[in-house]
Predict the structure.
Amino acid sequence: MVRKLKLLIDGQWLDTQNARPVINPATGEPEAELSVARSEDLAAAAAAAAAAFEKWKRVSALERGNMLRKCAALMRERAAAIGELITRENGKTLAEATLEVQWAADYFDWFAEEARRVYGRVIPARMPGVRQMVLREPIGPSLGLSPWNWPVMTATRKLAPALAAGCTVILKPAEETPSGPVELVKLLVEAGVPAGAVNVVYGDPAHISSELIASKEIRKVSFTGSVPVGRHLAALAGQHLKRITLELGGHAPVLVFDDADVADAVAKLATFKFRTSGQVCSCPSRFFVQEGVYDEFVERFRQACARQVVGNGLDTQSTMGPLTSERRLHAVSAFVDNAVAQGAQLLHGGKRLGARGNFYAPTLLGDVPPQAQLMQEETFGPIVPVVRFQRYEEAIALANGLNLGLSAYAFTASLATAQRLSEDIQSGMVGINSMAVSIAEAPFGGIKDSGQGHEGGQEGLEGYLNTKFVSQAG
Ligand code: NAD
């Protein structure tokens, strides 16, 4: 049975004439069909978000927080059912997809509390009888553009801070994986978020983003996705003077030093590398290993690759599902072929698995030359390219060599090295003997071409707030 997904505009679920299929990446079969938003639907969504904003911004922060907390509780309750929808459209394993929903619930809890901490301040006056205040106010209706790799988590990172701040939202989830975000929005409605405060559209991404960024109602845009699309949206936002938060690609370097616990490093890195088949912006992506532990590292990673069970994410035996789209399958194959042609050693995998579905083997490449394309561009796949280094300075230069800076990881037993590299690495987040760089209470965001602004932490509300100065004389 193919599910029919409608648009949500001003509290009404709407069907349009046009439809687009949603494909299961494990089977190639259609899973769902989504309504395609037309210009008049987008105008209606913008008008609904603007009208609802006048009411939503006046709902107390306490009450807004209560609704968000209720949504978090509902997410935890229904995590497995929503997780199954994610698996059917994204491909990741059911265990991972269920965890994604539970983990996203943390963000609603976090922002429910942060809503109550949107503090202003009082500035000492120059004259008696004068009160000078700084107020923080919601910026207005926002447009959230979320991707397909973590459909519920990334939609949450748009919805939770916006609603907590008192902003309304038009969410455009990725057309590849819309069902999880749609279920999430239904939970928000069930938790009491009023009509028009949250709207859902999908269809043609370029049409939607160009019309809504230009619309007079939208004040804020938040996008998670690729660098080229981010650049395009930033230009549109600049043209229309809209505030924008961008969470774009990374190509996370990993530095493994001679004094590291290699078994611990490989166990942690492999878990994070093969999650969502490597289609994660913060996943470890370029591996620089010091000469003394290179052989041990490569052998342990080869074993970790061999332990992966690649299959349909709904099968409980599977530890890694397919890539989400055929586009990714071709991109990943091309990266590996190019690296091998440039002289990299293929130590494991390196091929598509089966003829049906977008399955690709966990792939380990040794002594990868710097000119290989995958050392320059984000691979977004289950590829582990390993390069040797000798000196600290060489490793830092390799890590900082790209114009990207989302996350970076290092493994060392030396406190001095840990402290030094935490300052030397050009990156928004750094994990040292740890992969935990993405949690609700911490700021998540990139530098250089990896983006601007933050999602999560105290910083997560900033993008949704205006600052107003009030000078009041008696
Ligand atoms: P892509 O550049 O074709 O598309 C990325 C996403 O942007 C898609 O969801 C698409 O629907 C959307 N998009 C495209 N044009 C748009 C427009 N004009 N307006 C609004 N949205 C638009 O890339 P892809 O093949 O889907 O993904 C591969 C790359 O995307 C990866 O290499 C990675 O860098 C990036 N990506 C990053 C994240 C992240 O979490 N930062 C998530 C998904 C994809």
About this structure: The CA atoms of residues 79 and 99 lie 8 Å apart. Residues 145, 147-149, 174-175, 205-206, 209, 224-226, 228-229, 232-233, 247-249, 281, 327, 378, 380 surround nicotinamide-adenine-dinucleotide (CB under 6 Å). The chain has a mean pLDDT of 97. The chain is about 40% helix and 20% strand.
